[in-house]
């Protein structure tokens, strides 16, 4: 889908052109680090980096401030000097909420984002839910988590707590519909992570089409923020009770900076163990998201039904269906 230019402020058609704004909001574990480090900086537009000291305070307000006291006008006025005439891009997966806090804050973030920039184009990437859960869980362990996978998975209505993934929140159609309700269908572009894995050119071309800017060169294909190997998860989980991390202070000793690198190099020595059994719980969710995937595939022309990458995961085979 080709997106028209959307101005982030109202303007006089006879006056100077106003900034256009595109906001990439994740999701987490859908290639965001790669895009932020290797793709977005190469686009010929104004890319507002989330770690820019002049931009970061306003981004934190959108992500974390209580909506009751949130001042959209002040945030808009603070960001305005950072925008340039023409095309501008913001990228922060935190704008899609906190998956390990059951996405409890994502609607509040959307509302604040819409109050600040109602005419922005929203870019969001999805990923097959069970792969996404597995990747988020391994990232959680890398950050110092100590709970088993079964203790992190949560059904809706089981109470709000940290370190839990709400399974119902991964029905993407509900979230995408909410974005449409606020920003409009023509201001939403949905990408598929699996395209980045098996058809990177197609994935990048959809970004180029959305922002209306061509990449001058082929981006570096080096993978970034790669999850820990599955086999080392149980060992790393135990070590998290010994070594402290920046995000969690479960342990009592400083974590060696070489720990994860050492585990990656020694992974081939570790036998397939308990985490393989833990992951079997994900395979039992085969039917849970199938209808939702069909819905968004049709609505956003994603062609998930013919996707060459793990088609049977998006759409579980029916009984008797040929391989």
Can you put this structure into words, describing what you see?
The structure is a single chain. With 323 residues, this protein is of the alpha/beta class. Helices cover 38% and strands 10% of the residues. The protein contains 14 helices and 9 strands. The strands form 3 sheets. The protein has a 5-stranded parallel sheet with strand order 2-3-1-4-7, with helices on both faces. The relative contact order is 0.14.
Short description:
The chain is of the alpha/beta class and 323 residues long. It has helices spanning 32-39, 56-64, 72-79, 106-116, 129-142, 149-152, 172-183, 193-198, 200-211, 233-239, 259-265, 274-283, 290-299, 311-314; strands spanning 20-24, 46-48, 87-91, 121-126, 153-154, 165-166, 188-192, 243-244, 253-254.
SSE topology sketch:
Elements: E1 20-24, H1 32-39, E2 46-48, H2 56-64, H3 72-79, E3 87-91, H4 106-116, E4 121-126, H5 129-142, H6 149-152, E5 153-154, E6 165-166, H7 172-183, E7 188-192, H8 193-198, H9 200-211, H10 233-239, E8 243-244, E9 253-254, H11 259-265, H12 274-283, H13 290-299, H14 311-314
Parallel strand pairs: 1-3, 1-4, 2-3, 4-7, 5-6, 8-9
Helix pairs in contact: 3-4, 4-7
CATH class: Alpha Beta
Number of strands: 9
Give the name of the CATH architecture: 3-Layer(aba) Sandwich
CATH homologous superfamily descriptor: P-loop containing nucleotide triphosphate hydrolases
Helix content, binned percent: 25-40%
Query: What is the fold named in CATH at topology level?
Result: Rossmann fold
Radius of gyration: 21 Å
Q: What is the number of domains?
A: 1
As residue ranges, the low-confidence spans are 9-16, 319-323
- Which geometry do the CA atoms define? globular
Oligomer: single chain
The end-to-end distance, rounded to whole angstroms, is 32 Å
Strand content of the residues, in percent?
5-15%
Q: Note the main sheet.
A: 5 strands, parallel
- Mean pLDDT across the residues is 86
What is the topology, as strand order, of the major beta sheet? Answer: 2-3-1-4-7
Query: In DSSP terms, counting alpha (H) and pi (I) runs of 4 or more, how many helices?
Result: 14
Structural class, from secondary structure content? alpha/beta
Would you list the SSEs in sequence order as H and E?
EHEHHEHEHHEEHEHHHEEHHHH
